[in-house]
Design goal:
Length: 424
């Protein structure tokens, strides 16, 4: 802990400043960041000389297990970065006049408390009265009669009004005639609006959380998925996503624009449980890459699992937990040693937390994910899905899970069909 710009304040004032920040609009909606700030403040003030490590924060603040590895898990660094942004936001708004600044320096988790510099009040300057450089004695001032001054003023006002009216008439003649009211751009209605109503009926835009898997290696030498057992000391890259996810977000953006709404986008590695509590969420990508799906209410009927044995061992499949007559127990994309022509995707609406909603759109491949999103962005396919969900035409749509088959040609989804639907 460091205190700069010496000032008459002690731990009590510092803790009071932390309390003010936690109660502010900038931070009070984020429970995890409030806990982090309180912990950092206590450690910085009570143990200023003790080192403060990521492992300690992860286990004591967020309850991570003893095998937590900060070299492969960037959670604490991400949370600290978010907290720095929130502190900057607070001091730019509600805390603009606070006498104590709280900062988290780069490369450290010990807080710094600084006295805000007080700008000295500017002293009013006395302007000395000046006299003319030369003043002629006994000067004679010639005055104009009052009646002529009044006449001149009236003439000037009349001239200004005439010029203003003339300019307005000329400008009006040059402008094209406009309609009385501009037509309102129509918004999409029908099945698409009914399907997405849980995400458009409120005032807040939904968050789209897209998958970005962790990789090791370099593009020029070869990359592969991160394996915690053998890659604990390797540099992890989590800023890649699939082509299908990119095009899927574009499709969602177009669909919501047609509904008169916007979407907010965040990559999966930055997702926190606070997001679930305060937002409607749309997850794009399977749990094998969108690991944040593992921490929230998820699918129960159509579940992603790796094949445990046989020639397709290790491939990702969609397991049908309760097959109906004529349905398979599991579904797989085309084998990896031949061109991809078929994939299977899940579309699911599950209850979130505090009355929120969670939509899951995922395939076993990036192209299957794209196909799932495009399926729910088209009027005709959404209409078929709603037909399988009882009561969706007269009331709120019920939570459901659906399995979709996606046809693929040259890396492009070219068609999709509904395979099965389960209503909760």
């Amino acid at each position: 802990m460091a205190v700069t710009n010496t000032f008459a304040a002690g731990p009590e004032q510092f803790f009071q400043q932390i309390d003010n920040i936690i109660k502010s609009h900038s931070l009070r909606s984020s429970e995890s960041l409030c806990k982090l700030l309180q912990y950092l403040a206590k450690q910085s003030l009570d143990h200023p000389d003790a080192p403060l490590k990521e492992y300690q924060i992860a286990t004591e603040v967020y309850g991570r297990h003893a095998d937590f590895d900060p070299t492969s898990d960037s959670t604490i660094r991400v949370q600290a970065g978010r907290l720095r942004l929130k502190l900057a936001e607070y001091y730019a708004t509600e805390g603009a006049a606070d006498p104590i600044l709280v900062k988290i320096p780069k490369g450290s988790y010990h807080l710094i408390f600084e006295a805000r510099p007080v700008e000295p009040h500017a002293q009013p300057q006395t302007v000395p009265q000046t006299r003319p450089l030369h003043e002629a004695p006994n000067a004679v001032v010639e005055t104009i009669p009052a009646r002529w001054r009044v006449a001149a003023i009236l003439l000037l006002v009349s001239l200004i009004v005439s010029l203003t009216v003339l300019a307005g008439l000329l400008w009006d003649r040059r402008q094209p005639k406009r309609a009385i009211a501009a037509p309102i751009e129509p918004r999409a209605a029908g099945p698409l609006a009914a399907f997405w109503r849980p995400f458009t009926s409120g005032t807040d835009e939904p968050w789209v959380i897209y998958s970005n898997a962790a990789f090791v290696g370099r593009p020029e030498t070869g990359m592969r998925y991160y394996n915690s057992r053998q890659d604990s000391k390797s540099t992890v890259y989590d800023h890649y996503t699939g082509v299908g996810e990119v095009l899927a977000i574009h499709a969602l953006d177009d669909a919501f624009a047609a509904l008169g709404r916007k979407i907010l986008v965040k990559r999966g590695s930055l997702f926190t449980l606070d997001d679930v509590k305060s937002n409607n969420l749309i997850f794009v990508g399977s749990p094998s890459e969108n690991l944040s799906l593992l921490d929230i209410p998820n699918m129960q009927e159509f579940v992603f699992q790796r094949v445990a044995s046989g020639p397709r061992r290790g491939d990702l499949s969609v397991v049908n937990k309760h097959p109906k007559p004529g349905e398979a127990a599991s579904y797989l994309a085309s084998p990896s040693d031949i061109p991809l022509t078929e994939d299977y995707s899940v579309v699911g609406l599950v209850p979130g937390i505090s009355g929120r909603y969670v939509m899951i759109l995922a395939g076993t491949t990036t192209f299957g994910t794209q196909g799932a999103v495009e399926f729910v962005c088209r009027q005709e396919s959404v209409e078929k899905l709603l037909h399988e969900i009882p009561g969706s035409g007269t009331g709120p749509i019920r939570p459901f899970e659906a399995l979709v088959r996606v046809k693929i040609a040259r890396g492009v989804p070219v068609g999709s069909e509904l395979v099965s639907v389960r209503v909760r």
